[in-house]
Design a protein that fits this description.
This protein has eleven helices and eleven strands. By secondary structure, it is of the alpha/beta class. The structure holds adenosine-5'-diphosphate and 6-O-phosphono-beta-D-fructofuranose. The site of adenosine-5'-diphosphate has 17 residues, from helix 4.
Length: 326
């Protein structure tokens, strides 16, 4: 039988749509299994400073459809130090919290791993980031919503791009990985997609535009992941403009709209399954693991593994762009 009687819940790092659905699932599953849930506000900063309060079932009523996180989130340098983590431990002890669920990205799991190596309080993680770049899960909470936001935005840009015969560079988020750019670009019929996982050759892009020109192709949408090796959308657009002086070129950086909004049905479903599985894992005396969904099954991956293995988008899918641009 588990000794655990309570669980602290926090969201950490960059927010993502579906975090509220995950908080709701963790709180309700905890209560269902007889644990006392505590909300920790502002991520690890709130853990250090004692922003901790018991949560009741009604505290998570009516939040499943909202983006952001009711617990707020933060980045906290102090938690990276042993002194900071000691203060966090003292706060957890003071509130009788004997397990923790952290919803965040791999940085948050690094923090959880460091804490668990020093103190005997089990931590379980849920992958919450729009980037989808976490090893140990097919999907992260928030990715699907961000993709849908990108598709809606690019559909609108496409209207004006084709009315004016313009070349648009649309920058999407993803500083280390091109999942949003790749799947978002395919879903909105982009003419080219530039991602960090594949070296960008501007000459190839220019040749493609030249070819399109010959075929009287009058407008183009190029999706650029913010972390692309050739630079951001503005840099790339400026380089292309040098050779295509007659083109009407515009740049649109979608930015933080990708981080907000009502989560899609898939993100709510994912968050709900992972949230309940986090409590199952703690009751099963598991610790230092992230819960993921692979082939629709719950999978546990150690923090060590998920931190060390960097998950990248598959550049082979770029071949689809060549096929579809025939
Ligand atoms: P994400 O979780 O979205 O990747 P960050 O990388 O900003 O976001 O990490 C979130 C927080 O996790 C950091 O602000 C810090 O408090 C904690 N953290 C990150 N890396 C470490 C580390 N190496 N040791 C301890 N804590 C860390
Ligand atoms: O990790 C999620 C993410 O949205 C990245 O795609 C982006 O590069 C980064 O966070 C932006 O961070 P901030 O909100 O701190 O500007």
């Amino acid at each position: 039988m588990t000794k655990i009687k309570s669980v602290g819940i926090l969201t950490s790092g960059g927010d993502s749509p579906g975090m509220n659905a995950a908080i709701r699932a963790v709180v309700r599953a905890a209560i269902y299994y007889g644990l006392v849930p505590y909300g920790i506000r502002h991520g690890y900063y709130g853990m250090i400073t004692g922003q901790i309060r018991e949560m009741k079932s009604q505290n998570v009523s009516g939040i499943i459809q909202y983006g952001g996180t009711i617990l707020k989130t933060a980045r906290c340098e102090e938690f990276k130090t042993p002194e900071g983590r000691k203060m966090a431990y003292e706060q957890l002890k003071k509130h009788n919290i004997d397990s923790v669920v952290v919803i965040g990205g791999d940085g948050s799991f690094k923090g959880a791993g460091a804490f668990s190596a020093e103190y005997d309080i089990p931590f379980v993680g849920l992958p919450g980031t729009i980037d989808n770049d976490i090893y140990g899960t097919d999907y992260t909470i928030g990715y699907d919503t961000a993709l849908n936001t990108v598709v809606q935005a690019v559909d609108k840009i496409r209207d004006t791009a084709s009315s004016h015969d313009r070349l648009f560079f649309v920058e999407v988020m993803g500083r280390d990985a091109g999942f949003i750019a790749l799947r978002g670009g395919l879903a909105c019929g982009a003419e080219a997609i530039l991602i960090p996982e594949a070296e960008t050759h501007l000459e190839t892009l220019k040749n493609y535009l030249e070819e399109g020109n010959k075929r009287k192709k009058s407008s183009n949408i190029i999706i650029v992941a913010e972390g692309d090796d050739a630079g951001g959308a503005f840099t790339i657009a400026n380089k292309v403009k040098e050779d295509f002086k007659d083109y009407s070129v515009r740049v649109s950086v979608l930015g933080h709209i990708q981080r907000g909004g009502s989560p899609t049905a898939f993100d709510r479903y994912l968050a709900t399954r992972l949230g309940v599985a986090a409590i199952d894992a703690l009751l099963d005396d598991q610790k230092s693991i992230m819960i993921g969904l692979i082939n629709n099954d719950i999978v546990h991956t150690t923090f060590n593994k998920t931190i060390k293995q960097h998950r990248l988008a598959d550049p082979k899918l770029l071949k689809l762009i060549d096929i579809l641009n025939v």
